[in-house]
């Protein structure tokens, strides 16, 4: 992703490595690479032509693909190089923000390219709504219809309410419900 995303990923990797994989670390986690005793490593790269045309990795995880240039996203696929018992694999994550954007193109081409598309939305990632809340007085009542009662995710209900109140219907349907890309700002939304 961007330099900011790469910095965030470093923070996550460092925390995860210290909390879960501490015994496997060979050295301090670094911004560019974290190495483990079993010979594996995690590299965090920015979305640039120079970054994606260097290392060869068995696993590639791309984040926020929709804000990535399509040429960079495609070039990154060339990094994938399976090893012995580790087949090459690519995972791309992103909200599908823009019609005709990078993620839209990848999703549309998925069947021909052999990609599997997994979709999820706010109802699969929201925390469980407790008995202390009343559906009739909830800020999500029009869209939730009790779905948050079965929640098992990390998204806080109050955060979802804030988004629902501040986003347009179109943005909510695109960003939270993941029904389609947002059409805001387009001359012909259809």
Largest sheet: 2 strands, antiparallel
**Average predicted local confidence, pLDDT:** 87
Q: Radius of gyration from the CA trace?
A: 20 Å
What level of helicity do the residues show?
25-40%
Taken from the alpha-carbon principal axes, the silhouette is globular
Structure overview:
By secondary structure, this protein is mainly α. Helix content is 35%, strand content 8%. It has 8 helices and 4 strands, in the order H-E-E-H-E-H-E-H-H-H-H-H. The chain has helices at residues 3-19, 49-52, 70-77, 102-113, 122-125, 141-144, 157-166, 169-176; strands at 33-35, 41-43, 59-63, 89-93. The chain has a two-stranded antiparallel ribbon with strand order 1-2. The chain has a two-stranded parallel ribbon with strand order 3-4. The longest helix is centred in the first third of the chain and has 17 residues, at 3-19. The protein is globular, with a radius of gyration of 20 Å. The mean pLDDT is 87.
Main features:
8 helices, 35% helix, two-stranded parallel sheet, two-stranded antiparallel sheet, mainly alpha
Short description:
35% of the residues lie in helices and 8% in strands. The protein has 190 residues and is mainly alpha-helical.
Walk me through the topology.
Blueprint: H1 3-19, E1 33-35, E2 41-43, H2 49-52, E3 59-63, H3 70-77, E4 89-93, H4 102-113, H5 122-125, H6 141-144, H7 157-166, H8 169-176
Parallel strand pairs: 3-4
Antiparallel strand pairs: 1-2
